[in-house]
Amino acid sequence: MKSVRRLLVPLAALTALVLLAGNPAVADPGPPPNSMASLGDSITRGFNACGWYVDCTSRSFSTGDNSAVNSQYLRIRATNAAINGRNHNDARSGAKSADMPGQAGTAVGQGVDYVTMLIGANDACTGTEAAMTPVATYRANIDAALDRLGTGLPTARVQLISVPDIHRLWSVGKGSGSARSAWSLFSVCQSMLANPTSTAQADVDRRDRVRQRVVDYNTQLAQACAAYGPNCDFDDNAVFGYPFTLSQLSTWDYFHPNASGQQVLASASYAAGFGW
């Protein structure tokens, strides 16, 4: 028995080393950043969070300065006053993954220490299922943006935030006449939200395929972040998995987060981030 135990101990140690060697690099928080930029689309712009069909960047979950939202920027500022006023919202309403390299270039020009990226809702939320961005194209766009950040800001931390679950959007809103009217009137995310009350198998299958596309995007984000190295952190699907409610959506379009929804995004993404 003693000889068996002697054998088991080095084997266990060797196994642990192999497992550690095979794991992707763990995100390195480093010190709290002195500056930051946010990349993304209308969600990051705070669209519809304070007014009728306008960007509300003060209520952005990432770089906003509204105290009720308590953005990532304000949470960092609470521990590092040097970031005060050095918060750049480089997102653009309507943006897709193809726009990320350009936004990354803007962040590089700003010389920031920290970048958040939330993108993919518009890649999946299109007029038709066929118009969704292919997964390989999405990944190529993300890689191009990360390449630009890595070259221009080699020491900056980057957080890739998972695309929200738009199937849940359908689930929490389909029973609301106001939500259904807004989705139809403004042609909101028809790839998912067309015929919202239909139980026909074709519609059920379509919704499942659109959700799977979002799942696939998030898988690519995780892989791209792991390949980038320890300066990148993926939120491990914290935002995708958050069980948001109808009350956290704008009552103008029942798609974009309202101020409460932005606060939830800030909390979920920051808690799953670098831990400053």
Oligomeric category: single chain
Query: What number is the mean pLDDT?
Result: 92
Number of strands: 5
Order of helices and strands: HEHEHEHHEHHHHEH
- Tell the overall outline: globular
- Helical percentage: 40-55%
Low-confidence stretches: 1-24
Q: Into which percentage range does the β-strand content fall?
A: 5-15%
> Within the largest sheet, what's the order of strands?
2-1-3-4-5
What brief labels describe this structure?
single chain; 276 residues; alpha/beta; five-stranded parallel sheet; 10 helices; 44% helix; 8% strand; disordered N terminus
Can you describe what's shown?
The chain is α/β, with parallel strands linked by helices and 276 residues long. Helix content is 44%, strand content 8%. The protein is built from 10 helices and 5 strands, in the order αβαβαβααβααααβα. It has helices at residues 2-22, 72-77, 100-110, 121-124, 135-152, 166-173, 177-185, 190-193, 201-228, 259-271, and strands at residues 36-40, 87-89, 114-118, 157-161, 232-234. The protein has a 5-stranded parallel sheet, with helices on one face. The model is unreliable at 1-24 (pLDDT under 50).
